[in-house]
């Protein structure tokens, strides 16, 4: 597993998003994992480049119990689920969601377009998603 994690973070350092695709069933895992979550295939996974495009499926705004000061530089944001174009579904931070556009976003779920953003952190990089600017421009 250590080699998988290292390759993933090395790719982020180069501005590239990598996932792993199961050679058995074709499912894509992002972030990459050791085995396929769809069929359980062990180690027979191939590296693929991820487009970074997806859709927000659901979200919730941070509150008193879920606020993380380390993420203040990402405001405004929500926690939510994203399905990427390649099919993987996972939880992440989604930039661009705020109280004043919450109703608009909720009305368009599960089809709010998002894209990946690589964010530098202290000693590493992480992936968050952001609502597409064109879509945000339609919000009241």
TrEMBL record:
UniProt signal peptide: none
One Pfam entry name: zf-ChsH2
Identification of the protein by name: ChsH2 rubredoxin-like zinc ribbon domain-containing protein
ChsH2 rubredoxin-like zinc ribbon domain boundaries: 10-40
Species this protein is from: Streptococcus pantholopis
Upper taxonomic lineage: Bacteria, Bacillati, Bacillota, Bacilli, Lactobacillales
Domain of life: Bacteria
InterPro entries to which the protein is assigned, alphabetical: ChsH2_Znr, NA-bd_OB-fold, Thioester_dehydratase-like
């Amino acid at each position: 597993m250590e080699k998988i994690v290292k390759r993933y973070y090395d790719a982020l350092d180069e501005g590239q998003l990598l996932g792993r695709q199961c050679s058995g069933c074709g499912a894509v895992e992002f972030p990459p994992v050791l085995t396929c979550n769809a069929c359980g295939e062990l180690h027979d996974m191939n590296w693929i480049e991820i487009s970074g495009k997806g859709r927000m499926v659901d979200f919730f705004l941070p509150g008193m119990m879920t606020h993380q000061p380390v993420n203040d530089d990402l405001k405004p944001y929500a926690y939510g689920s994203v399905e990427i174009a390649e099919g993987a579904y996972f939880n992440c931070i989604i930039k661009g969601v705020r109280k004043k556009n919450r109703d608009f976003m909720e009305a368009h779920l599960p089809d709010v377009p998002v894209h990946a953003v690589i964010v530098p952190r202290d000693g590493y990089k992480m992936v968050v998603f952001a609502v597409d600017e064109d879509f945000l421009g339609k919000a009241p």
